[in-house]
Write a structure and sequence with these properties.
By secondary structure, the chain is of the alpha/beta class. About 60% of the residues lie in helices and about 10% in strands. It contains 22 helices and nine strands. The strands form three sheets. Strands 4-3-6-8-7 form a five-stranded mixed β-sheet. It has a two-stranded antiparallel ribbon with strand order 1-2.
């Protein structure tokens, strides 16, 4: 049965994996870094990883190294670089089963694992390459090893502890919140349990952490600790970003958890909550028409989540078996820590944050159903009702997931209207297959004339399309309002459902509008420069100018060991990246 559940999860994650791949700004940025290593060898891997969104702080580079290995095995294409994320997402399913099996029965564990396997939220995040997407696997396996390291029935507790240290430390490379949350959760758990390990085990744990953070330490040594300074700046910035009171942040954080639980367990994205603010000591509750339509889903989800958390506390209090009690203790610490860390971010919340803790919502639901089963007498009726609820939620997720797959299948041919996206926050559906067809058109025009391609689109699409053009050797630059040359083909790529005329308005002074080609949710518009706007015959691409970047320097291994004063080059312009990341988040 477990193998069948894993195969279901694999099928959902692998279905049209390459065709419908989500490949946008962050994916193209990371692919450039890994491509350098695939061409020049592992010495071209960087000592620092991706940036935390909206800051210049960089994470440790573990994600890039895993993506590099994926590229070596499956090829350097966008789908080859993303393959390891899909595989880790599939492997997280049996890990989840053995994790929840520490407390639940076999049937309950299988039911919850099937819900995890079909959750539209986790399926979609398992279908493309992004550094937070590997968190479920490493967090679950790390916590499973941590539980076994304090289990007195285990004969290799020290080895499980070292495994937990390795897995959870590597997980901190994947996201800023994981970097903060996982050491706190594990530290509190160990303080409460006080396991006894030999000094060799503690030394081994220190060596593991030091080794995994060695690249970052080397970069810090070479730059005078600039990334550490960015860390404190990022913490301060994210903590003081909004002027809302602590009470407002608590209420907002609670509502985000409720709606996150609803999304993860059902796949339904239409739940809402009223906006609650404190003005001059008075509570203001606002609920517009959109909020009013989904408020009862939100209220119902809140009631279930509150009862689930109460079930966690009650079951922990009454549990006598140490192994099961440790499981509940870890889940409680996991919930409290992440909730507290989300408080400063509650008004700037992103769905990906729940990749650190979203698995908990399925576990909490299981605990709620345990109490329902008890209320119904604990016999076959209670078990049937609990499993029936799980299966209903599985079918709910599959329904919403297949609807999304249907939209992805049409994205390249039909200008479909999709509902507001609370999983990936996409405004429209765009697939890699669709982007490749657009690049086919640009390549055709490039070969017809032998002219560089000048293109502009929204940042998340432009960076990806530029990367795909570079893979084909297409000389290209950004479409602008100046620097217009006679030898060039010029394209503007806009969302089909947007106001195309408004998007063209600022270009009409320097260009005349040519043919428009629809690629479903995106429309490619050819522009011809007006004679008076042309400043030269052809742009000289040999004189590449690098814009000044205020981002801290990032070395590769090769640059570190052959360095002068600064790294020779960074594939990213820090200022531009921060601007584009900000635009994308908005």
């Amino acid at each position: 049965m477990l193998v069948s559940v894993v195969l279901v999860g694999f099928s959902l994650r692998a279905y049209h994996f390459s065709d419908w791949l989500h490949f946008e700004l962050d994916q193209a940025r990371d692919a450039r870094v890994v491509d350098d290593a695939l061409v020049g060898g592992p010495g071209e891997l960087t000592l620092l990883g991706p940036k935390a969104a909206g800051t210049f702080l960089r994470l440790a580079p573990g994600f890039y190294y895993l993506e590099y290995i994926s590229g070596l095995i499956f090829g350097g294409s966008p789908s080859g670089l993303a393959m390891f994320v899909m595989l880790f997402s599939v492997l997280s399913l049996p890990v989840f089963f053995f994790f929840v099996r520490r407390y639940f029965s076999v049937l309950f564990s299988l039911g919850l694992t099937l819900l995890f396997a079909t959750s539209a939220y986790f399926v979609m995040y398992g279908r493309f390459a992004w550094n937070p997407n590997i968190l479920p696997f490493f967090v679950l396996l790390g916590f499973l090893a941590l539980l076994r390291s304090v289990d007195e029935e285990e004969t290799q507790r020290g080895r499980f502890f070292l495994g937990a240290v390795f897995l959870l430390t590597l997980a901190t490379h994947a996201h800023f919140l994981a970097f903060l949350a996982l050491p706190i959760i594990a530290g509190l758990f160990l303080l409460i349990k006080r396991p006894r390990f030999s000094w060799r085990v503690w030394v081994g744990a220190f060596v593991i952490v030091a080794s995994l953070y060695l690249p970052m330490a080397l970069n810090e040594a070479a730059t005078g600790g600039l990334n550490t300074q960015e860390f404190f700046s990022a913490v301060t910035k994210k903590s003081t970003k909004s002027d809302h009171s602590l009470v407002e942040k608590f209420l907002r954080d609670s509502s985000e958890h409720v709606l996150g639980a609803l999304l993860i367990t059902t796949g339904f994205e239409g739940g809402t909550f009223p906006s609650i603010t404190l003005q001059h000591g008075k509570v203001e509750i606002k609920c517009a028409t959109k909020c009013d339509r989904g408020k009862w889903y939100g209220v119902t989800a809140a009631a279930v989540l509150i009862m689930s958390i109460a079930a966690l506390g009650f079951l922990w209090w009454e549990e006598m078996e140490r192994k099961r009690k440790d499981f509940l203790l870890l889940c409680g610490l996991w919930l409290l820590t992440t909730f507290a860390l989300f408080l400063p971010l509650s008004y700037n919340f992103a769905p990906r944050f729940f990749l650190v803790s979203g698995m908990l919502f399925i576990i909490l639901l299981g605990l709620f159903l345990v109490m329902v089963r008890r209320f119904l007498g604990g016999g076959r009726l209670g078990t049937a009702v609990a499993l029936g609820v799980m299966m209903a939620l599985v079918f709910s997720n599959l329904s919403f997931l297949f609807g999304r797959f249907g939209e992805l299948s049409q994205a390249g041919t039909v200008a479909i209207n999709s509902a507001p996206d609370r999983i990936l926050k996409d405004r429209i559906r765009v697939t890699l297959e669709q982007q490749m067809r657009i690049v086919d058109l640009l390549e055709q025009r490039y070969q017809e004339h032998g002219y560089p391609v000048y293109m502009f689109s929204e940042p998340q699409h432009r960076r990806a399309l530029t990367y795909l053009m570079e893979l084909r050797g297409i000389e290209n630059a950004v479409l602008g309002f100046d620097g217009i040359y006679r030898q060039g083909v010029y394209y503007l790529i806009l969302r089909t459902q947007s106001d195309l005329e408004d998007g063209l308005k600022k270009y009409r002074e320097n260009y005349t509008v040519g043919p428009m080609t629809s690629f479903g949710t995106l429309t490619v518009i050819e522009l011809s420069p007006r004679p008076e706007a042309i400043i030269g015959e052809r742009q000289d691409f040999s004189a590449v100018s690098h814009s000044d970047s205020t981002a801290p320097p990032r070395y590769t291994w090769k640059e570190f060991f052959h360095r002068t004063s600064t790294p020779s080059a960074d594939q990213e312009s820090g200022t531009l990246d921060q601007l584009e990341d900000t635009e994308q988040n908005q």
